[in-house]
Amino acid sequence: MLSLLALGAMPFAACADYFTDISHGFALGEVQELMVGEQVAPIIEVESQTPLSQGVAIILVEPFLSNFSLAQSKELADYLSQKGWHVVISPFNMSMMPLSEETASETTDAPSSATDPSDAASSTSNKEGNPGSNNVSIHPRSTNLTQYFDFDDTTQQLSTQLLALNNKLQNVQGYRLVIAQGMIAAAFLDATSKNSNFEPDSFISVSPYWPQHTVNRGISELIASSTFPVLDLSIKGLSDWESKTVVMRRNRAKTSLKLHYRQIILPSSNSVFSLNQNQKTPYIQLVANNTIGWTRYLGW
After folding, report:
1. CA distance readout (Å), 278 to 78, 283, 288
2. How remote is the C-alpha of 23 from its chain's centroid?
3. Are 188 and 178 in contact (CB under 8 A)?
4. Residues with Cβ < 8 Å from 58, sequence gap 6 or more?
5. Fewer Cβ in 10 A, N or C end of the chain?
């Protein structure tokens, strides 16, 4: 709970801090700048290691545990580059709704007001009983994440970043492959449904979900109605929100007669041991191998 409160209290300036941390976390010259609207965002490019390039693979990354970490993204990029892909890692910061002044003051004053439980309880009852209160009633079984993340704003900001990536990569020959996991995968599907210019030649969707019931159920329809091939990778146990739509996504794709759709369930943990220091983590191996297998199936 404390972490969620801290997350909600983060100002929009955290976006700049996130990008700055990324730039400082890599060697000088390894991170390049991308103009996204009026802001400068970092991207990490990994060149193809084969004479003939397959095209460009874009890995969308956001700063939450439900997504690829930067280290995992770099690991995946190195693997794909060995198979002929020019890889671009594009970090994206999720759009958060700012706390109201009233909520922020309550969060700040919480430790002092909590010293007397009876006073805190009476204060709470007074606020709930006040007919003029502007507090929005929250369903007791809803997730706190819905209070901090806005799906439409996230999709709009992601569209701006995708436009900047398209402009930068417009002269790169070959196929266009996009890989995304978690909430950003759901936002990407929504962005492509609203603007066909963002449609890739194929999309690798890893455990897509959004922590809001209506939006989360709509992911299956977004996949089924998409016009590009989709590899739907589902990691067991990653998110309860994602697990609720696994069967729904598969059935909706089948009943819609979607062409080039495949769903694969990946184990949540893998007990693989190797003395080879260059051995990739089992999770990245599974994602990478299934991705390459999917592109081979498409005839690339």
Report:
1. 11, 14, 15
2. 20
3. yes
4. 87, 88, 90, 165, 169, 176, 177, 178, 179, 200
5. N
Kindly tell me the burial class for residue 116, based on how many C-beta atoms sit within 10 Å of its own C-beta (0-12, 13-18, 19 or more): exposed
Phi and psi at residue 232, to the nearest 5°? -100, 100
Instruction: Please report, rounded to a whole number, the percentage of residues in the chain having pLDDT higher than 90.
Output: 55
Q: What is the pTM of this model?
A: 0.79
The amino acid occupying position 76 is: L
Tens-digit pLDDT profile for residues 196-211:
999 999 999 999 999 9
How would residue 25 be classed by pLDDT, with cut points 50, 70 and 90? confident
Q: Tell me which residue of 251, 200, 206, 252 sits closest to 229, measured CA to CA.
A: 200
What is the helix (H) or strand (E) element at residue 155, kind and residue range? helix 151-168
Three-state SS for 257?
A: coil
How do residues 49-97 score in pLDDT, each as one tens digit?
999 999 999 999 987 766 788 888 999 999 999 999 999 999 998 766 6
The DSSP result for 13-61, as a single string, is THHHHHHHHHHHHS-TTTEEEEEETTEEEEEEEE--SSSS--EEEEEEE
Average pLDDT, the chain: 80
Six-digit token pair at 241?
A: 């929100």
**Beta strands 85-91; 202-206: pairing state:** unpaired
Q: Which backbone phi and psi does 97 adopt, to 5 degrees?
A: -80, 130
